[in-house]
Amino acid sequence: xxxxxxxxxxxxxxxxxxxxxxxxxxxxxxxxxxxxxxxxxxxxxxxxxxxxxxxxxxxxxxxxxxxxxxxxxxxxxxxxxxxxxxxxxxxxxxxxxxxxxxxxxxxxxxxxxxxxxxxxxxxxxxxxxxxxxxxxxxxxxxxxxxxxxxxxxxxxxxxxxxxxxxxxxxxxxxxxxxxxxxxxxxxxxxxxxxxxxxxxxxxxxxxxxxxxxxxxxxxxxxxxxxxxxxxxxxxxxxxxxxxxxxxxxxxxxxxxxxxxxxxxxxxxxxxxxxxxxxxxxxxxxxxxxxxxxxxxxxxxxxxxxxxxxxxxxxxxxxxxxxxxxxxxxxxxxxxxxxxxxxxxxxxxxxxxxxxxxxxxxxxxxxxxxxxxxxxxxxxxxxxxxxxxxxxxxxxxxxxxxxxxxxx
Length: 407
Prior knowledge:
This protein is an alpha/beta fold. It is built from ten helices and 13 strands. The chain is 41% helix and 21% strand. The strands form three sheets. It has a five-stranded mixed barrel with strand order 1-2-3-5-4.
């Protein structure tokens, strides 16, 4: 074959093509090995070698890279590095650009997390186009969480303050441990069946308190991610604290940084809604009054113009028509004011009925088993010797059960 028929590359073109192939075909990955030949440049960049028993590769971590890890680099340290394979074109050097470094012994969960995240992201489970809108004024909310955890107490506390008329349904599940992921998936399915067959749910909140990567492992489960993605009910995740992110957060329709923040985002403030409704009623009333006055002025102007042009014998007829029109306008104005007043009274009554302390003012009370957040409704739930707590309008009473009857 002659030289004219062969592909002729420059060195620059070859290195550029090799770099493109490496970066596009292999992409980002985790690399495990030992640090050696570490050099810290005055620029702040770190140059070193990652090696195992038989091979090594040049690596660099730039000063402006990820701040997620503050691990100190030392020769001989076993690490798990996340980054991209590339070629440094000016020298044709094969190297690994490091974005994140962790101790090798702690990286298994992070590796699994990143691999699952990449997989589901490629499948489109995180796409914004799949996110369902959350209701502005929900009536019924389901919560998937542990009924004994701090998360449910935080959520219910915010609900009682902001939107006390909300109906809450708790779907119990473990939130930590080997069985947690399966229970979370089952509770989501149970919530969907409940919403379909019994009472429609406007929103579903999946929640737990903060914790380590190991504590939150159940929320990085692939089956849970797919259950959230396919759920017909809008889902808000409220897992951990502000810095904690899980796979469930990426799939959910909305992620809240804490359980309390989820409750704030889920429901409006009833005092703000009442204020807004009052403003709307006042605005509509002013507009109706202004419209009536405008029509009346226009009618009077037009009648005056006609009176000067028409024969005198028609003035009486026009006067009668004017009286009829004015009577109609007054009647319509009175009816409009009456409707607005009835609407405002209805809204005022609704807000008054939504006061959670109203039953207490009527002499009612709530009784709880000591340490429980669920009120007692059946004497079969207590036995002699149980400690009970009675909540009144003012104060509470601690008692011990002496006798239990079923009548």
